[in-house]
Amino acid sequence: MSRPRAWLAWSSGKDSAWALHVARARGEVDVVGLLTTYTEAYDRVAMHGVRLALVHAQAAAVGLPLHLVGIPAPCTDDEYQARMAVAMAAARAAGVTHVVFGDLFLEDVRAYRERQLARAGMTGVFPLWGQDTAALIAEMLAAGVEAWVTCVDPRQAPRALAGQRLTPALIAALPPTVDPCFERGELHTFAAAGPAFAHPVAVIAGDVVERDGFVFADLRPAG
After folding, report:
1. Do 143 and 90 have their domain in common?
2. Are residues 92 and 116 in the same domain?
3. Which residues pair with 69 in a beta bridge?
4. Can you tell me the distance from the alpha carbon of 47 to that of 49, in angstroms, rounded to the nearest whole number?
5. Residue 115, Cβ neighbours under 10 Å: how many?
6. Which end of the chain is more exposed for a tag (fewer CB within 10 A), N or C?
């Protein structure tokens, strides 16, 4: 019996990359593509601020086709839903019935995703759900996940973290109010290597800017 075909919601961050690794290891679904939303005006992943060129490099490194959904800035929920509905229709036409997410514990986020998926006749898969986030980030780093901080919410975490590479020392020094996996949006990351990758994506941290109340580090391809 063949496994259900799935796309994986790919934000470019560490949790997406780890969810891909775990989903592949469990083998309950066949992940056949990555789904990424990006802001059309900037050609960057929303909130993460990652250049699309780097997302394409990630897709090549994990060996999966990239399915892009452009959204305007600003984007209303109605517009977002309409564009995602088009993407889900394309997925269904390709025999895809499931979407994998890297969500960890935010019940309202999961409920929102499941409502939207149900409307499209799709099923959500949450391979990381409910895990202890301190243990999870330690497991990721020990397994060779390399990730860089691309966005900081300065209301929740120090601005100086923008552009830094995740290390056990960085995690240990976080304020106690910051979730170790940043599930409440304290930080956003770019995954450059790990067990889901056939080879690393070489990057360097460029300019750091503050925009719309968030601090962004502009990662660029190295070399």
Report:
1. no
2. yes
3. 37
4. 5
5. 11
6. N
Burial class (CB in 10 A: 0-12, 13-18, 19+), 113: middle
The token pair that represents 6 in the structure block = 């799935």
Q: Tens digit of pLDDT per residue, the chain (223 long)?
A: 789 999 999 999 999 999 999 999 999 999 999 999 999 988 999 888 999 999 999 999 999 999 999 999 888 989 999 999 999 999 999 999 999 999 999 999 999 999 999 999 999 999 999 999 999 999 999 999 999 999 999 999 999 999 999 999 999 999 999 999 999 999 999 999 999 999 999 999 999 999 989 999 999 998 6
Q: Phi and psi at residue 76, in whole multiples of 5°?
A: -75, 160
Same domain? 16 vs 57: yes
**At residue 65, what is the residue type?**
P
Entry pTM: 0.96
Please provide residue 207's backbone torsions phi and psi, each rounded to the nearest 5 degrees. -65, 145
Which of 76, 140, 75, 71 has the alpha carbon at shortest distance from 102?
A: 140
Beta strands 146-152 and 187-193 are antiparallel
CA-nearest of 42, 96, 109 to 67 is: 96
Among 106, 125, 144, give the residue marking a domain's end.
125
Q: β-strands 96-100, 123-125: how paired?
A: parallel
